[in-house]
Amino acid sequence: MAYAIIEEGGKQYQVKEGDLILIELRDAEPGVEIRFDRVLLYSDGAQVQVGKPTVPGVTVTGTVKREAKGPKTITLKYRRRANSSQRKVGGRQKLLAVQITKVG
């Protein structure tokens, strides 16, 4: 089965057809097709192509499904010997769920 490693938003994802990945939020409506041109590695099952830095002629396409929220990240502020100044601050990053439709 064909798979690829793509770069999107400074992160790398290993994808194959049918996968659902969460990428950083960008302006895209549900149902819109997205093309990922930065393919770092591509394998069709028989041979592997490694890019220098990208594989020429290979793209990955996906369809936007929905907006999602990532896990809550927690930051704890603590000042020693001052227990009353502990503070728990958290937030959730907005992500975009993309269904991979074609690799290659």
Annotation keywords:
104 residues, mainly beta, four-stranded antiparallel β-sheet, 8 strands
Describe the protein:
The protein has 104 residues and is mainly beta. It has one domain. The protein contains no helices and eight strands. A hairpin with a 2-residue loop joins β1 and β2. The chain is elongated and about 60 Å long. The termini are close together. The model has no long low-confidence stretch (mean pLDDT 90).
Parts with pLDDT < 50 across at least 5 consecutive residues: none
Strand order in the largest sheet: 2-1-5-6
- Report the major sheet: 4 strands, antiparallel
Structural class: mainly beta
Euclidean distance between termini CA atoms: 11 Å
Rg from alpha-carbon coordinates: 19 Å
Strand content: over 45%
Number of helices: 0
Taken together, the total number of domains comes to 1
- The arrangement of helices and strands along the chain is EEEEEEEE
**Oligomeric state as shown:** single chain
Work out the helicity level.
Answer: under 10%
Shape: elongated
Q: What is the number of E strands? A: 8
Name the average pLDDT.
90
